[in-house]
Amino acid sequence: MPTPQTAAPLTIPDLVGKVVLITGASTGIGAALARGFAAQGSRVAINYHSSEAAAKALADELKSAGAEALLVRGDVTDPAACAQIVAQTGEHFGGIDGLINNAGLMLGRLPSLEASAGHIQDVIDLNVLSVLSVTRAAALWLERKGGFIINTTSIAARNGGGGGAVLYAAAKGFVSTLTRGHAKELIGRKIRVNGVAPGVIATAFHDRYTNAAQLETQRLTIPMGRVGTPEECVGAYLFLASEMLSGYIIGQIIEVNGGQLMP
Hints:
Elements: E1 19-22, H1 28-39, E2 43-48, H2 52-64, E3 69-73, H3 79-93, E4 98-101, H4 117-142, E5 147-152, H5 156-159, H6 166-186, E6 191-198, H7 204-209, H8 212-219, H9 231-241, H10 243-246, E7 253-256
Parallel strand pairs: 1-2, 1-4, 2-3, 4-5, 5-6, 6-7
C-alpha cells in the first residue's frame, strides 16, 4: 500500500496566535499535535510528566522554527497538578484559547477481571479523572473569550478494545460520553467540545503494549492495509479547533482509523 505523503501545511487564519494547551504532548500524537498547531502559528503549551528529554527536544525544535512553545511539567493523575498545569499556561501566555486532553495510556494488557483494584484505579486516574481535572481548571480560562476543548478518545471506546485492553477501552468510552455531555454543558460558556478517536497509530503506545503478531492481526482488519501515523491524526484536531471551519460542530467524535471502524 502507498505510504502517506507529507505536504506543506496550509495556514488556518483563526488559529494564528491562539494559545493551545496539549496534555501528554512529549511524544506520539501529542507531539505531532504540538508541531501541527505551531505550524499554524498557534502558541503551544507542551505538558509532559516523565518524558523530559523528549519534551525539551520538541520545545527546542518548535522554538528553532520560530514558534512560541512552553514546557509545562505535571502529572495529570493529580488534580492539584492539573490546576497548576493550566494556571502556568494561562499566566505565561495571558490566556488560554484551546485545550487538548491527549494524555492517556493502557498501563498494560491483562484481563479486566484479573486486574487489581490499584491497577483499575490507575487506569481511571490517567484516562478519565485527568480529563475531568484539566477541563475543570481550563474552563475558567476558556470561557473568558470562548474557546475549544478536544478530547483524545480511541477506536477502543466503540469496539471494546483488543486482548487485555478492556479497562482502557472502558475508560475511553467514558471519555467519549463525557465529550458529548461536556459539549452540552459548556457551550453556554462559549466553549466548544469535540473529540478525536484514533485507530491503530504507529506510536510508542503500541511499541509498549502490542507485540508484532498482535499488530499484524490488527493491520489486517484495516481496509487501507496499514497502520496510521501520528501526523495523519493532526488534521482532525485542527479542523475541530478552528471556529471558522467547525464553529457549528459540538459533541462530535471524528474517527481516524483507515476504515477499520465505520460507525
